[in-house]
Structures are given as structure tokens and as C-alpha cells.
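Hi P.,

Sorry for the delay on this. The queue was packed all week, but I finally got your sequence through. Input first:
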Amino acid sequence: MKPVLGWVESSSATQNMWGARAQRFSSAGARMWTDDGAQLSPLNASQESFDRTVAYAGGCVTHWFEDTGGGTGAVRSARLDVSGAFVWAGSPITGSSRSTGKSRLDVALDSCGMSSLVWADGGGGTQDILVQNVRSQGVLGPLPVVLGDMNCDLAVTVDDIPLFAIALTDPAAYAAANPCCPIARANTNGDHQINGLDCQTFVNGLLGP
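Then the structure:
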């Protein structure tokens, strides 16, 4: 896995505007997302801080605080692909818009690409500890269940066909190869069994309304 780096930048020499960027490096140390890096947040009057960036799936997942005025801040998140482009629609997404001060962000990434965020929240000498999860699909909280979606990208497409076939014919092989996407999604007719009776409803989901 290629190393990645995220950082907060400020305008020079006035230092009254801030932004966030990320960079991916080759094994030889060459910059791979242009010399400037990939832009996460453009330079503006909202100050970014506590950038936390973790390598994932050839790109990275990154999280940071963004000042929203009056001593309050929001938690922002984005995922970049191998080319440095945003993966999630509407990026950056908001992990917390609670109108409070925020500090000391920390992040852990699990094997399925889910980020677990924890930070100190509040001001005036009184703070809470808050947590949030951000899944690799850009979803907060539980992952929506889309029956027939065998690669857990939240849509039923041709990419799900070979995975659906494996789930039907060799459940153990499917479970071993797809630990982050439950095989129960192959139960497309809702009878709590995975068998040939699910094929028609899978095809219906593939074709759409």
C-alpha cells in the first residue's frame, strides 16, 4: 500500500484563509497526485484543523475539523481513489454538524474501510466525548441493506452477478472472499433461504422498475 499524507494549508503571507489537501507517494517517494496534492477543501475563511488521513483501497480516507464561526466547528470527511479523485458524491461529507467547539480528533480504520472517529466536543471548560462512524461508502451509521447488492456498493448492477452466483453455489467461498458484505443480501425474496428461488427477484432488482 502506497503511503499517503493529509495536511491543512493556509494562504501566504496573510494566513487568513485555510484549506486541506492530501498526497499519495510512490514506493520511490514520488508525488502521485500532482505536485500540489489533491484538494480536499479549497482555501476559504473557514479554518481547518486536526486532519487525520489513512490509506485505503489504493487511495485514502481523510477526516478533519472545519471552523463554522463563533467558536464552533463541523467534522468533515472524504475518500479519495487511486487517482486522487473524490469517491463519495457531495464530498466532503459532514460527520457532525453539531454547533459546538471541537478538538483532539482521532481516527481508526477497520479492515472493511469503516472509520471510527472520536473527539472532544464543547467549549467553556465543559466537554463531552463524541464518536461517529463513516463507512467506506460514505454512509454514517448502519449500512443500508439493498437485497441483491452483493458487493455492498448500495446498488444492484452487473458487478453483482458473479458474486450472487457464488453465494448460491458456494456460500463458504462467498463468505471467505467477501467478509464485509453479508451473504444474507442474496436472500432477495425474503424467505430467509438462499437458493434458486432468489434468482428471479435478483434479476428483477438488476433490471430495475
